[in-house]
Amino acid sequence: MSTSTSPNAQQVHELVLANHILALEGVLDAYGHVSIRNPSDSNTFLMSRSRSAEIVADDDILVHDLNGSVAGIPDRELYLERFIHSSIYATRPDVGAVIHSHSDAILPFSISNLPLRAVFHSASLIGSERVPVWDSHTEFGDTNLLVETTAMGESLTRKLENRALVLMRGHGFAAAAKSLINALKMATALPRNARALLDVLQAGGEVTPLSPGEVATHGKADMSTPAAQRQWEYWCRRLGEPYQPVG
Ligand SMILES: [Zn+2]
Asked: Which of 54, 77, 81, 241 is catalytic?
């Protein structure tokens, strides 16, 4: 039954397309997930049931509460690591979309002292600071490294603070943005940024990161502009989907 807090069909379908885009771009594979805060009820968020991103369909999108639960759905049908999303939304009212990925391109930066920083313009949304690394072992000892509890999600969110990105040692990353298109732009630029950094380091060169001013200037770009929508249109075309402006 539809209620006033039910998401509308376009919002649900945009999230489905985001799943497919992230699979297309190699950011999500069998694992990892993307969510948006429910525009109809900010105390809930929308995310698929436990399916791989490439095959998520509209009917898979479920309304999760900020404890990571879904009314009427057994926990075993939900993503194990949904607490990454629930904890970030509960703590960060400015966040409208979250992506968790196991992208192998960023793995070297989560297990070493190599600093991950934004080095090209498309990656400016990750900020100008060195990206912090959350190590689950610090608080939780020997685990399977998966964020399977609210306590672990809250610990990760504390490491994220007010930033857009946190790496997870030996695991992946969590990205938080004000909108779905911003989250997609950041998560798809991040592996390219990481590979560029590694290429320079392997060649023995020195890295010049974006300056704080460059990051701030790029961060002011309005993602509702035609230039930003062009990215969404490109992805829709590559997926063979009709283009509709993303909200
Ligand atoms: Zn994970």
From this structure: 81
Nearest to 166 by CA among 99, 92, 68, 91: 99
DSSP one-letter code for 98: E
Q: Is 81 a catalytic residue?
A: yes
Rounded CA-CA distance 52/31 in Å is 6
Q: What angle do CA 100, 102, 103 make, to 5 degrees?
A: 110
Q: Residues 123-153: pLDDT tens digits? A: 999 988 999 999 999 999 999 999 999 999 9
Q: Give the confidence band of 220 by pLDDT, cuts at 50, 70, 90.
A: low
- What residues does the ion ligand 1 have nearby, CB within 5 Å? 81
DSSP 8-state code for residue 123: G
Q: Give the sign of the dihedral formed by CA 104, CA 107, CA 108, CA 109.
A: positive
How far, in Å, is the centroid of ligand 1 from the Cα of 2? 32
At residue 55, the 3 state secondary structure works out as helix
